[in-house]
């Protein structure tokens, strides 16, 4: 299913949601914050931003970022820097809507739990593999030391 979105109800959407395209001056592109918010509706299970759900929308965005990383990156002289969505980003996009069906808090929290659970299992496997390698290296070093 495609992700369909509508920003026509966002206040000042023409100025807020679109930026001039640096490569084609006569065209516009979607603002990276607007784009991130559109995709986040799918990740966090809330299909729109309203005055009523803005705090919950922000909370879920924060929890998602904690679980998987920052939603926006910019490249600087020091490399890639993550940028988090702010509450003001959410408030300024009230009216944004998508075809995402709202998920219950329980379903969203289970999604976050499963993401973190997979991450922990991956880290455990990695640490176990590193420990096995370390022990094997110690055995090899011990045998090498004995033959000298």
Outline the structure in words.
The protein is α+β, with helices and mostly antiparallel strands. The chain has two domains: 1-103, no CATH class; 104-148. Helices cover 55% and strands 14% of the residues. The chain has five helices and six strands. The protein has a two-stranded antiparallel sheet with strand order 1-6. A hairpin with a 2-residue loop joins β4 (72-76) and β5 (79-83). α2 packs across α3 (54-68) and α3 (54-68) packs parallel to α5 (105-147). The longest helix has 43 residues, at 105-147. The protein is elongated. The mean pLDDT is 90.
Largest sheet: 2 strands, antiparallel
**Overall geometric form:** elongated
Oligomerization category of the chains in this entry = single chain
Helix/strand-derived class? alpha+beta
Number of helices: 5
Q: Level of helix content?
A: 40-55%
Strand content: 5-15%
Please trace the helix and strand order, writing H or E for each element.
EHEEHHEEHEH
Provide mean pLDDT, rounded: 90
Spatially, the strands of the biggest sheet line up as: 1-6
Low-confidence stretches: none
Number of strands: 6
């Amino acid at each position: 299913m495609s992700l369909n979105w509508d920003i026509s109800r966002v206040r000042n959407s023409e100025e807020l949601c679109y930026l001039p395209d640096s490569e084609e001056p006569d065209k516009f592109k979607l603002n990276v914050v607007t784009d991130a918010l559109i995709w986040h509706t799918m990740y966090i299970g809330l299909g729109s931003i309203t005055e009523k759900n803005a705090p919950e929308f922000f909370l879920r965005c924060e929890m998602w970022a904690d679980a998987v990383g920052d939603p926006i990156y910019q490249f600087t002289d020091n490399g890639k820097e993550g940028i988090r969505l702010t509450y003001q980003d959410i408030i300024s996009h009230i009216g944004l809507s998508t075809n995402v069906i709202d998920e219950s808090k329980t379903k969203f929290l289970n999604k976050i739990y499963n993401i973190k659970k997979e991450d922990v299992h991956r880290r455990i496997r990695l640490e176990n593999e590193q420990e096995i390698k370390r022990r094997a290296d110690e055995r090899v070093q011990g045998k090498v030391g004995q033959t000298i």
